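Practice set, problem 2.
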Amino acid sequence: MALYGALFISAFFAATVLPISSEAVLAGLIVSGRGDPWLLLAVATIGNTLGSVVNWILGRGIDTLRTRRWFPVSPERYEQASRTFRRFGEWTLLFAWLPVVGDAFTIAAGAARVNLGVFVALVAIGKAARYAVIVAGGLWAMA
């Protein structure tokens, strides 16, 4: 049970301000044969999606928070993500897993007041697809 908790924590914090690689943790668990692959996929997806919800909440208060030193996205990255978000809308959330701009997309979604249910659904789909590729690759490597 501890390995699922460790994966959840790494996935959660990987979606927030800490530079953690949940993909490496997941891949390591898969190739070492530890844990059920489907359950690992679910735990990683849920943890990473909930971490993105933290970013959505930060986005809701962006006007008062973005000048803080600890704010997870630079002004330049936020502006770039905001332009992309305005151009493509909520569909950008399918790419919340991307390095560099993914966190900014989730913050922009909060600032844009995207419905939380829509946000969670789109972010979870994108993150689950990314983790599914990692799980499949790990299982293929073990074969």
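Problem 2, part (b): a different protein.
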Amino acid sequence: MYFTDRGIEELEKRRGDEEVTLAWVADRLQEFTDTHPEFETAVERLATWLARLDDPDDE
């Protein structure tokens, strides 16, 4: 199991019943990269991937 899997499982366990907006997630990601700038590229890649997930032009 990867550390990422454990983090995702913890997120699901702790926050799985909550409903949040995309703006809330974006704010949390920005806070995270402000605190941990070494992850800015990874967060940017995740955000771009999510933004283009259902875009048929990117397949």
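Answer key, part (b): Residues 22-35 form the longest helix (14 residues). The chain has a mean pLDDT of 88.
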